[in-house]
Amino acid sequence: MSEIKKRLQTFYKDITTREVKFLLNNQPEITFEELYALLKDNQLTNFDPVKEAFKVYDPNNTGFVDMDIVKSFFKELGYGDISDEDAKIILETADGDKDQRIGLDDFRMMVPFGQPHDPSASSTD
User: Fold this and answer.
1) What are the Cα distances from residue 78, in Å, to 5, 67, 75, 81, 125?
2) What pLDDT, on the 0 to 100 scale, is given for residue 93?
3) DSSP three-state, residue 28
4) In what residue span(s) does the EF-hand domain sit (predicted)?
5) How far apart are CA 95 and CA 103, in angstroms?
6) Can you tell me whether residue 64 is helix, strand or coil?
7) Backbone angles phi, psi at 6, to 5 degrees
């Protein structure tokens, strides 16, 4: 739980222990599959978690990732300062449509969000 809170504080500075406990369903730890099931079975309709995550990187609602925000996240996560050259590489890597910006569609291609991995589904007959 403390590890999740630490990571969430990068994006949500004022998240409380109580909110993290609620997210984890009062469990001391949670697996990806449990978190996925919890989020999948929520009562929210028309909730797009990738779009919500994108808003963190686009605080001014421009429709594109703010590279200064990306730089600050890298620093807050302990990776140090990101140079302009490094930021350019991140941009080029993430820019799927090659328009020199990272929009929501580009962001969707980067975010590994989907079904939990089911090892039995990959077996061959």
Assistant:
1) 15, 17, 5, 9, 46
2) 92
3) coil
4) 45-80, 82-117
5) 8
6) strand
7) -60, -45
The closest of 47, 51, 89, 45 to 67, measured between CA atoms, is 89
CB atoms within 10 A of CB 107: 19
Q: How many CB atoms lie within 10 A of CB 4?
A: 15
Q: In 3-state terms, what secondary structure has residue 21? A: helix
Band the pLDDT of 77: cuts 50, 70, 90.
confident
Arithmetic mean of pLDDT, 6-29 = 77
Number of CB atoms found within 10 A of residue 19's CB? 13
